[in-house]
UniProtKB/TrEMBL annotation:
Belongs to the HsdR family. Subunit R is required for both nuclease and ATPase activities, but not for modification. It catalyses: Endonucleolytic cleavage of DNA to give random double-stranded fragments with terminal 5'-phosphates, ATP is simultaneously hydrolyzed. InterPro entries: Helicase_ATP-bd, HsdR_RecA-like_helicase_dom_2, P-loop_NTPase, Restrct_endonuc_type1_HsdR_N, Restrct_endonuc_typeI_HsdR, SWI2_SNF2, Type-I_R_enzyme_R_subunit, TypeI_RM_Rsu_C. This is Type I restriction enzyme endonuclease subunit. The type I restriction/modification system is composed of three polypeptides R, M and S. It comes from Arthrobacter flavus. It is an enzyme of class 3 (hydrolase). GO terms for molecular function: type I site-specific deoxyribonuclease activity. It comes from the Bacteria. The keyword Repressor does not apply.
């Protein structure tokens, strides 16, 4: 086997730029600099055009468009085309930008009545476009002209239209003067005459030594905000948003001559203009940065090479892009998806995001790229329809929805097509199971991941499949790297400023990697919480720069806002309460506006550094935690005149509104546990107060909420840490600043693991023989620790071929022990929280391991089939025992146990198991639903429709009118409060019914 050689079109960004060594010694004037630039452009096949007036510019445009489209305009045709399709009187920068980016084919009505397509740009074959360079162009003044006569330095014309403008200052002059001069042109003269200079998409500013580029939006925004002319969204609006050009190693190319040879290389410039600019839903033009372009092109090259070399469906066909948090990964990943969908060999591109991101962060953007692609409906029916529609080339979906689709549609034809899957954040906790499901289902795929914080050997957990521990093991080789160090150096994100505030003076409280409840209780002492809140209030204005004002959209605001990260829900509540207490007697404008948000997370802490992901599941909260959250949301409603609560839909809308208030700087501080610490972007956020243990990728993600660039007032991301996180911070920054961090976990030799496994299993069989009850709490805990260790070792050993046939525990013993283990675990969970601290930290972790053993309905049916084939009928007692064990070992199947056992009893001798199962479940489902309808006196048709919707959507909707239609007429005003009581009772019964039958038949889609 030979490694394939990459044969591709020229890359837009050079792999490595080596500067010329010859140093010039002579003084260089601005005129000399300009001459040198034009000479370099001419040497790269740009035609020099001595144009100085608008009439000449228009005549040249006509000739270039005729040449590009092989047509000759009559004077009447040209006049009409120019005034209607190129330079309409009401067209401004936005309309002309839309024309170039999205509408570059314009219609010409010919004199003979026929219609012809006219290209302003050839985006298919970019080398058909003609590049020219003009200099010292003087703007018209007087009638229809500009306010002042301006003379522009150098402009690049593409097919006769000014598309790139270069403003030069001599060496030794601040480059910002060039930026400010372009502002003046926009105000005074770009619109002058027929406004052709409003077609400029990109600006380049240089003083010879330093050279930067930016999009026309940056200039337009800056001017609009300076004059307060109209409402504009605050984004790229100042010098802070200009970009360096660089090579693929992220080394900036700053000298004008070097910039001209690379950025202005014909294929590079035309690629940037036609492929690597993005027009957003708000008509903002974003021009991609060099590392974003490299990341995109490496993915496209990998797709082409792996297709040619027949590697599809293997890890060699994929890879991951490591671009640090805050560097614009979503834009890069979507652009890669968009361009991949245009490759002839590709049938579908699936762009997979987390549900939170899709619903709230970038929904409008995704939808703008591909109308209707980003459908946040939880039903997989929409996804199924999109996958079956040959016209839908690119589909945005959530991890959750794709997972449901795969499990519900075995053998679907889409699995045979060439499918490119791009994961926007590939470190998400859901990914492990998804990975296995995808690689089993799809045959010809490319799998790509984008992440700001990859999982390396150094920050991988000790659990899980040892072959899927790191990002590299799951996705394949690293395709491009842009580290936090690169981003801070380039000023694409802000540096961090960290304050460590010591809060424990007497005695030492050790913050362990996974804190025990003991430690957390000590850290939540009322005196400590009170002091931290006082400190936060005292330093809040200073940290969030409340003394400094700036324009945000159409309003003036002062300073920034902050998040307060706490270790747990009780901690979040304690802090919220303390802020309320300390601010009680203040006048309203002196009070900080404080929000609180948390939801159910599966674990309090995760040992590998990941932050636990909280969904929107408020039902799983304890009654106490939920009622506290409800009260905090009522405080929010009072402050902002809203009407949210903790019911499913309204809580999601609260999350959405809270994130909007953060982005618009309308709230001062939000107290969180894990929410908003990953994947949330608000440029107005500049401070994170931390009272929780963070490490590795979780730490970088949390810190990175604060360092998005906004304007010249925001200079740092501030971290105020009330715990000693210095070592963890240094380790994380060292790890994620290291381009060469190892991506593969090194396993010890097989023999070492096996020896350990043999010893532990011997101890298990001798100390806890099956069938003998385990008496006493200490013995039970010892058993949990021992069996947990066996499970972990077994999990690692299964990745070695040598282990097959050498297992000591039989499958049956494994299942029996697992049943005992889960039973004991359930008992310990019921114990009071105060006792929890005595349980070894490993327990929760190993329980997570158990959940990875996927025992689902397919597995059960396979068992039934196997035993029946071996024994000839379904009556064998062995089937019953084996199936009972399998069901006991699966937490998700326990409430379905009686259904499964009844089915085994009802099985015929030679029928199709799958068909019989479906028929059995359908009959059972109908019978049990009829019983509920009868017992609760529900409306039959409405109830059936309500339940069908739940199975289709994958959840019972307890809000809205659906549930109300089901209920029998009850007086809302009866003394016993009959209506709400009845509603709650029905929801409970239908919820249990749904849980029991969901996932058991293939009727859900």
């Amino acid at each position: 086997m030979y490694d394939p050689i990459a044969v591709s079109n020229e890359s837009t960004v050079v792999a490595e730029y080596v500067a010329d060594q010859a140093a010039e010694a002579a003084y260089q004037s601005e005129a000399d600099l300009e001459r040198e630039l034009i000479r370099l452009l001419q040497s790269q096949a740009y035609e020099y055009l001595p144009v100085t007036s608008e009439a000449q510019l228009m005549a040249n445009l006509r000739a270039r468009l005729e040449s590009l489209n092989t047509i000759t305009f009559s004077d009447a045709e040209w006049q009409q085309f120019f005034t209607e399709r190129v330079a309409g009187t009401n067209d401004g920068i936005i309309e002309k930008t839309v024309r170039i980016q999205e509408d570059h084919v314009q219609l010409l009505k010919r004199d003979d009545g026929s219609v012809k397509n006219i290209l302003l740009l050839d985006k298919q074959n970019i080398h058909n476009n003609q590049l020219q360079v003009i200099n010292q162009y003087e703007t018209p003044t007087g009638n229809g002209g500009g306010n002042y006569a301006n003379r522009y330095d150098v402009t690049v014309l593409v097919n006769g239209l000014p598309m790139v403008h270069i403003e030069l200052k001599r060496r030794g002059v601040d480059i910002r003067e060039a930026f400010n001069q372009i502002d003046r042109y926009q105000r005074d003269s770009f619109w002058a005459g027929s406004g052709l200079f409003e077609y400029v998409q990109l600006f380049v500013i240089s003083n010879g030594t330093l050279t930067k580029y930016y999009s026309n939006t940056t200039r337009r925004q800056h001017i609009s905000e300076a004059t307060g002319s109209k409402r504009v969204r605050k984004t790229s609006n100042s010098f802070e948003f200009t970009s360096w050009w660089a090579d693929a190693q992220n080394k900036p190319i700053t000298d004008l001559a070097a910039f001209a040879k690379t950025f202005f290389a014909k294929h590079a410039l035309l690629n940037i203009l036609t492929r690597y600019c993005v027009l957003t839903a708000d008509k903002m033009l974003l021009v991609m940065r060099p590392y974003q372009i490299v990341g995109t092109e490496r993915i496209l090259q990998k797709i082409e090479i792996s297709t040619n070399y027949k590697q599809l469906g293997t890890i060699g066909a994929g890879g991951y892009v490591w671009h640090t948090t805050g560097s614009g990964k979503t834009l890069t990943s979507f652009k890669a998806a968009q361009l991949a969908s245009k490759l002839p060999s590709v049938d579908k591109v699936l762009f997979v995001v987390d549900r939170k991101d899709l619903d709230y962060q970038t929904m409008r953007e995704y939808d703008r790229f591909e109308k209707g692609a980003a459908n946040s409906n939880t039903s997989t029916a929409v996804l199924k329809k999109q996958l079956e529609n040959p016209g839908a080339r690119i589909i945005i979906t959530t991890i959750q929805k794709l997972s449901t689709f795969i499990s519900a549609n075995k053998g679907h034809s889409i699995y045979d097509g060439h499918v490119v899957l791009i994961f926007d954040e590939c470190h998400r906790s859901q990914f492990g199971d998804m990975h296995t499901a995808i690689t089993k289902a799809f045959k010809r795929y490319n799998l790509f991941g984008f992440t700001g914080t990859p999982i390396f050997a150094a920050n991988s957990g000790s659990g899980g499949n040892p072959q899927l521990k790191t990002t590299e093991q799951a996705f394949g080789e690293k395709l491009h790297t842009y580290t936090i160090v690169d981003a801070i150096t380039d000023r694409n994100v802000l540096p961090f400023r960290i304050d460590y505030v010591n809060t424990v003076k007497v005695g030492t409280v050790v913050d362990k990697q996974v804190s025990s409840i003991d430690t957390e209780t000590a850290l939540l002492a009322p005196e400590r919480v009170s002091k931290i809140v006082a400190y936060t209030r005292e330093h809040f204005d200073q940290k969030t720069k409340r003394a400094e004002g700036y324009t945000l959209g159409e309003k003036r605001v002062r300073g920034f806002n902050a998040l307060f990260a706490t270790a747990s829900i009780p901690a979040a509540r304690r802090y919220y309460q303390e802020f309320q207490t300390q601010q009680k007697n203040l006048v309203s404008d002196k009070r900080l506006k404080i929000g609180l948000i948390y939801s159910y997370g599966a674990n309090d802490a995760v040992e590998d550094g990941a932050l636990d992901e909280e969904g929107f599941d408020t039902d799983a909260l304890s009654a106490d935690a939920r009622s506290f959250l409800e009260a905090a949301i009522q405080d929010y409603n009072t402050t902002f005149g809203t009407s949210y609560d903790t019911t499913a839909d309204k809580f999601q809308n609260y999350y959405k509104d809270l994130s909007l208030k953060l982005k618009q700087r309308e709230i001062d501080l939000v107290i969180v546990v894990n929410m908003f610490l990953t994947g949330f972007d608000a440029t107005t956020l500049n401070t994170l107060f931390v009272d929780k243990n963070l490490r590795a990728h979780g730490l970088i993600q949390a810190y990175s909420r604060t360092n998005r660039i906004l304007n010249s007032v925001k200079t740092y991301g501030n971290i105020v840490s009330f715990r000693d996180l210095e070592e963890q911070t240094n380790d994380a920054i060292a790890l994620f600043g290291n381009k060469d961090a190892r991506g593969v976990v090194l396993l010890k030799p097989y023999g070492e693991y096996y020896k350990d496994y043999a010893e532990k299993v011997t101890e298990l069989l001798a100390g806890y023989p099956l069938g003998t009850p385990i008496i006493g709490e200490s013995a039970q805990k010892e058993f949990i620790g021992l069996f947990g260790a066996v499970l972990r070792l077994q999990n690692i050993l299964t990745s070695f071929d040598d282990f097959t046939g050498n297992e000591i525990l039989t499958e049956r013993q494994g299942q029996d022990y697992r049943s005992v283990y889960l039973d004991l675990y359930a008992d310990f969970r019921k114990e009071k929280k105060a006792d929890k601290e005595q349980i070894n930290d490993d327990i929760v972790f190993e329980i997570e391991l158990i959940k990875q053993v996927e025992i689902n309905v397919d597995y059960i049916l396979m068992l039934v089939q196997k035993y029946r084939a071996e024994r000839g009928d379904g009556d064998d007692k062995e089937i019953r025992a084996e199936i009972s064990r399998a069901v006991d070992a699966s937490p998700t199947l326990r409430n379905k146990k009686d259904l499964i056992e009844d089915f085994v009893d009802s099985l015929s001798v030679d029928g199709e198991v799958d068909q019989e199962w479906r028929a059995f479940i359908t009959a059972k489902r109908e019978a049990e639903l009829d019983t509920i309808i009868e017992d609760e006196n529900l409306r039959p048709e409405e109830t059936r429709a309500f339940v069908e919707t739940a199975f289709r959507d994958g959840q019972i909707s307890i809000t809205g009118t659906g549930i109300t239609k089901v209920l029998p007429p009850v007086s809302r005003f009866s003394a016993a409060g009959g209506h709400s009581e009845k509603k709650q009772n029905v929801i409970t019964k239908l919820g249990a019914f749904f849980e029991r039958f969901f996932g058991l038949s293939s009727t859900e889609s």
